[in-house]
Write a structure and sequence with these properties.
This protein is α/β, with parallel strands linked by helices and 154 residues long. The longest helix has 15 residues, at 108-122. The protein has helices at 10-19, 37-41, 60-64, 92-99, 108-122, 127-135, 141-153; strands at 3-8, 27-29, 53-56, 71-74, 80-82. The termini are far apart. The protein has two domains: 3-99; 108-153, no CATH class. A hairpin with a 5-residue loop joins strand 4 (71-74) and strand 5.
Length: 154
């Protein structure tokens, strides 16, 4: 493997990018910005064998496809630390949680709504009302957690 995948907190990554020569031919900066989800998921598989350099990304799909010992995280001092855990094949939810520091799997606004429903569940709101509210939300770990609370309550 002749490339490194570099990721980190969005602020740290932007700082790192500003410190680099963006014209460097051995550097790919946020390639996911022009790729759909399927292209992100197959990005590393399609890199030419001749590419030697760094790929800076925030895509959980690209990170999940990174071979062990090829993932580095940039910190606020622009120091790169090698990730020693096995990352290859890690679910994108787990990548967001363990690598990118995003501890929820939905958007902030959806999380806020789910928190309101969770509070209503914990405070004894009628099951029918909770299920009606949840029926308007897409599936997520957070929604399943509320359903689990509801089942335990009954």
């Amino acid at each position: 493997m002749l490339y490194r995948v570099i990721t980190g907190d969005g602020i740290d990554i932007r700082k790192l990018i500003k410190s680099l020569d963006e014209n460097d031919k051995n550097l790919m900066i946020l390639p996911e910005t022009s790729l759909d989800i399927n292209e992100q998921a197959s990005f590393l598989k399609n890199i030419p064998d001749s590419f030697v350099g760094d790929i800076i990304t925030l895509s959980p799909f690209i990170i999940s496809d990174t071979p062990t010992n090829s993932l580095f995280i940039s910190d606020s001092n622009l120091e790169l630390k090698k990730v020693k855990n096995h990352i290859f094949g890690l679910s994108t939810d787990m990548v967001c949680h363990t690598i990118l520091g995003r501890h929820i799997s939905v958007s902030d606004s959806a999380f806020y709504e789910l928190e309101i429903i969770r509070d209503k569940t914990k405070h004894g709101e009628k099951k029918e009302i909770i299920l009606d509210l949840l029926s308007k939300m897409g599936d997520s770990f957070e929604k399943m957690n509320i359903i689990s609370i509801l089942r335990k309550r009954d």
